[in-house]
């Protein structure tokens, strides 16, 4: 009976297009400017990447760091040279972490389901150092996103594969090859 009386107070259900995990991922991808100032861009970027499931390789190290809890002291200034973001939950909200990281030569984005076109635009801050880029099985990437890669003028190798929403492969490869004449491009 009480429920019958209160039924008119109910709000209509509005379908939510974002899941709770999506909103949590946004929080985990946000840049903390104070933290960046405190520990430097590479450490801050490494924290972001590791927090979201990616792995980083430091300069003069042979192995990837895979555990956030094994980060070296924040008083030690190290430089990231490689990023393996396989199955990481990184989003474009976090790509400002790359600002100031001047030694990153290689990035792998594999099965990054939250990676969207806007994120690829953010890679332009790595144009002076990035030599190798792999984007595979990232389902939200389309031609407009790949077009942003033309800003990576030092890129030597670009691997693209299993991007189901890229419909005009030859056209985008031609566009990228024109913008990146010294880059070997493979699209499987």
Automatic annotation (TrEMBL):
GO cellular component: cytoplasm
Highest taxon above the source species: Eukaryota
Protein name from the UniProt record: ATP synthase, H+ transporting, mitochondrial F0 complex, subunit s (Factor B)
